[in-house]
Each structure stands twice: as structure tokens, then as C-alpha cells.
């Protein structure tokens, strides 16, 4: 089997100089990846000026006891659509398990549960996602624009957003300061 396939449950890190500003220092939690394509949620950047309480207010949901968490820029696709990456302590009608490592929910029910204090204990909220057509991600991985590392709840929920990109490389034993923007010729 091609090792670049089926990356659900892993984290993609954009290499320096990837050539697409939308993915500069991107950290993407891969949620699905199969022969039909791939989908992930960006977890490496937050949306300035938007927190959970403001988002809940826009949806007419009282924040209750929910802390005012930052909202992540999930990706360049459908940036008005929300996703919640969370642990398996909560499950709703549309919740999907991501390789036994975390879960993904996209309905408003998870936000209502979080506000009511009955939602997942660990979560991360994002607007938008990153998507690839069949074979597109494999092609990008072969050009060395991305690196995949093992995904786990600690990298998603415990590592601060500002250090998640560096932390992903360090977990793989790579000092990101030593990454080159290009390759030489012989």
C-alpha cells in the first residue's frame, strides 16, 4: 500500500515555502482520507477577534459556563461552516470517529452541548476545512510540501495553537529551524 494514503487521524504540517500562502505553517488534523479524497481541519491558526462566546451569540445560544475559547481557521473551504474536533466523551447524530484518536462533529448540537456543560470535555472549534480531490493530496505529498506526523489528543488539545506547528515537527524529532525552503542540484 502507498504510505501516503489513508492519513485519517494524523496531522499534516506544511513545509516552509509550500508555495500557497493559505497553508503557510499550516497544521491540519486529517479527518478523512480514502480513494475518493481527503478532508482535514486547520488547527494551526485562530481567527482574530472571534471567540466561542461571540460565535454562540451569532447562533442564539447562551454560552452558559463554556469558556470563551478561540475559533480556529479550519481551512480555505466553506469558511462559514463550523466543525468541532473533540474527544470521545460526547457523540451526536453526525459525529464521526477519526481513527480512534478523536471525533469530528459538524452540527449545531455539539455547540449547544458545550454551552450547556454536557458536551465533550476536550474540544477545538474551527470554521472551514481543507479538502483534496482523489489523488490530489498524494500528489502534493510526493512534492514534499507536507509532512505527516502521528496525531493524538495531546497535540490537538494540549499544545497551544501558536506552538502547534513547531511542536508537531519536534514530536517527529525534527528541528523546524533546520528545514530548507528548497533543494540544491548536483
From TrEMBL:
Superkingdom of origin organism: Bacteria
Stretches that traverse the bilayer: none
PANTHER family per the UniProt record, alphabetical: UNCHARACTERIZED PROTEIN YQGE (PTHR30327), UPF0301 PROTEIN YQGE (PTHR30327:SF1)
Family (UniProt): Belongs to the UPF0301 (AlgH) family.
Protein name, entry field: UPF0301 protein AVT10_12210
Species whose genome carries this gene: Sphingomonas hankookensis
Amino acid at each position: 500500500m502507498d504510505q501516503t494514503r489513508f492519513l485519517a487521524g494524523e496531522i499534516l504540517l506544511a513545509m516552509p515555502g509550500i508555495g500557497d500562502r493559505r497553508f503557510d505553517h499550516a497544521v491540519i488534523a486529517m479527518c478523512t482520507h480514502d480513494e475518493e479524497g481527503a478532508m482535514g481541519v486547520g488547527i494551526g491558526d485562530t481567527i482574530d477577534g472571534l471567540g466561542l462566546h461571540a460565535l454562540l451569540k451569532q447562533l442564539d445560544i447562551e454560552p452558559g459556563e463554556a469558556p470563551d475559547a478561540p475559533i480556529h481557521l479550519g481551512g480555505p473551504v466553506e469558511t462559514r461552516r463550523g466543525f468541532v474536533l473533540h474527544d470521545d466523551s460526547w457523540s451526536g447524530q453526525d459525529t464521526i470517529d477519526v481513527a480512534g484518536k478523536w471525533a469530528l462533529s459538524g452540527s449545531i448540537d455539539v455547540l449547544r452541548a458545550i454551552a450547556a456543560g454536557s458536551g465533550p470535555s476536550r474540544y477545538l472549534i474551527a470554521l472551514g476545512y481543507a479538502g483534496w480531490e482523489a489523488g490530489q493530496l498524494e500528489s502534493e505529498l510526493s512534492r514534499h510540501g507536507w509532512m505527516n506526523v502521528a496525531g493524538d489528543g495531546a497535540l490537538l488539545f494540549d499544545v497551544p495553537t501558536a506552538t502547534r506547528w513547531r511542536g508537531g515537527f519536534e514530536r517527529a524529532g525534527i528541528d523546524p529551524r533546520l528545514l530548507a525552503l528548497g533543494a540544491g542540484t548536483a
